[in-house]
Design goal:
With 55 residues, the protein is an all-alpha fold. Helix content is 62%, strand content 0%. It has one domain.
Length: 55
């Protein structure tokens, strides 16, 4: 079973909206499911998302 609450908290901590959370790619889901507790810099994440957009 996936740790939904932890994944959602991780997504919110990097500034993702609920809509963005449900639109994540498989790789992004795996990152959230890993739950390694490593904080992510939201600015860096958004830069990466712009540089490497899904779809």
């Amino acid at each position: 079973m996936l740790p939904w609450a932890e994944m959602f908290r991780s997504a919110l901590s990097v500034g993702l909206s609920p809509r963005e959370f449900w639109a994540l790619s498989l790789k992004e889901w795996r990152w959230l499911a890993a739950g390694n507790g490593t904080p992510v810099n939201p600015e860096h994440l958004h830069e990466l998302m712009k540089e490497y957009p899904d779809g």
